[in-house]
Design goal:
This protein is mainly alpha-helical. The chain contains 5 helices and no strands. The chain is globular, with a radius of gyration of 19 Å.
Length: 147
Amino acid sequence: YREAELTHGRVSMLAVVGFLVGEAVESKTVLFNGEISGPAISQLAQVNPLLWVFLGAGIAKAESIRAEIGWVEPKDVPFDKPGQLRDAYVPGDIGFDPLGLKPEDPEELFGMQNKELQNGRLAMLAAAGFLAQELVDGKGIIEHFSS
């Protein structure tokens, strides 16, 4: 469960940043020719469908790498223990640390992951709040800050 919660927390943290950045830079970026506008909840539907292909392929590749790192191959797992993690695998640690922030001490790593879990839980609530607020009144989150 720790693995799942870390993963969902990381996705939620990215979603919250995406909500705020997407609304803050709408029609000011050359990335999509300035054609995407409105509340963040409606922006993804305005993106070129070709992006969905690249997005899906990227997610599939990332998830297959994560599965290869963390999970025992299905042929080597007893039928009553599906989804068994590798013994040496630490939940959430897929070896991606380009800034060198991961502590060497296992206790420090556990503490850092606990902080990440707490921030991820907060981000899950924030993302749900953003979605609800935009569905209720149709205004973007940034609009609420400026009014």
